[in-house]
Fold:
Amino acid sequence: MGVMVTGNVTRLVGFDDIGETFISDGRVLRGIYPGKADGVRRVLHTCIAHDLFKVGIIATRELEKNPHAELGYEMTLEHARVPFVTFPNEWPASMLLAAAKFHLRLFQRLGTQGLTLKDWHPYNILFDGTEPVFVDFTSIIPADELPKQGYLAGAKAPAGFGGWDEYSVALYRMYQLTYEPYFGLPLAMMEQGRHAEARERLTATALNATDSGMLRGEVFTGRKAARARYELNDLRLKMALREHGPNKRRFFDLLGKRLDAMQVAVKGSAYSSYYADKEEAFASEPSIDWTNKQNVVHDALVRFSPATVLDIGSNTGWFSLLAAKLGSNVVGVDLDEACIDSLFEAARRERLPVLPLVANLMAPPPDIFAKTFPDEPSLSRIGREKPLYPSPEKRLACEMVMALAIVHHLALGQGHSFERIAGTLSDLATRYLCVEFVQRDDKMILDDPGFFPAMTKSPGSFDWYHVDGFVAALRKHFSEIEVLSSHPSTRLMLLCTKG
Ligand SMILES: C[S@@+](CC[C@H](N)C(=O)[O-])C[C@H]1O[C@@H](n2cnc3c(N)ncnc32)[C@H](O)[C@@H]1O
Structure:
């Protein structure tokens, strides 16, 4: 049971016998349970002395005074706040691969200071734009404590590897329990082109949601050659673990090479040449070639200067990149794997603050709660069970939402009502919404009915699809709505502001 907490405190999901994280008045704090402070302080001092924050560990400091004395922590840390919380099931394949490489480099760098990590999965990583950040500070432990971790207890060396030391036994067990189900196997599935399936399995088997994460069998069933290659690689990794001592340099080098050789991105899709096909792959400097649409969106971004922008249906991110160049911190979301992967590469190349996600914000996954394991009782002082995936509006809401050339897909394609669309857009926009409305006489709707299955299935039942109805639905959430022209002339741009 939690104690009475003063002030505005929200517990974050976490499973740790060292401490717990929570938001207190907008700051991310971590309370350390009694008896654990000395160890955490030692790790913190090593990180400070050797500048380990530079390699992507979340900036962390110890607070002199615990603002929540009633919670009885022995020590309180403050972490920098990463703007948006996202999960591996939302990252494009290249981003999951980048996270895996980052995690591996972290092991290697921590190893040089006698430290390691007590688990090995992507839920300890968030992305700030395209940069991975390791956020679970208390997962960093002295290397000699790894074999003592409760969940690794009882692990044994595999047959034929009886000479392994206790570090190899613990590391390989951690690899099997956390790296394989959440990094290695989903990436192997994506390498086979099964991105949607990998994403579904990652969603359903979120860390602590199930007894078992992804298994080798489901990735390689019917794929004998791929399985043989995987097992051979596994054998090589096991051989590398014959190296003695806590620093498993050969193992990490070998795994790093495997990750470097992986090709996981979806290279092209029906949507990935959208701007080239429309002959609108313009440079992002204002130009006389720009259409009304580019000009109107550019002017709205300059006029409202939103700190954060959520671009829903971003495609390859022409407008996301524009918003980032104009100074906003941007989240670009699309259903299309290839588009979002190419946005990740573009934003990374141009060093722009764009966080690209593969997700359908109209249909987020249902709430999943962590299982409680009898041998791991919750030590939380705050209590209150939370879903593992907080809803999109709690994590991704931005000062401005852009929803360009997507409402017709949501309504005529996916069958959502104007009320539902306007409500979702409003939940995600704290102040402004820049939304394009494609009218029924638009060439795209007339010429490509295949894109609009809901309408094709029941053509007579979409008479309500008219801009007046959409504006009426938006009025319930936004006090001001400006209607401007877009491009071509069958499209309108609605600039909506909350009161
Ligand atoms: C016509 S394109 C518009 C691209 C961009 N917003 C623009 O105006 O230039 C529509 C995009 O919306 C995406 N999309 C359709 N339904 C979606 C949904 N429910 N969630 C996220 N993206 C979606 C498609 O994959 C596609 O990339």
Q: What stands out?
A: The domain at 88-261 is CATH 1.10.510 (Transferase(Phosphotransferase); domain 1). The chain has three domains: 9-79, 88-261, 274-369+388-497. The CA atoms of residues 332 and 356 lie 5 Å apart.
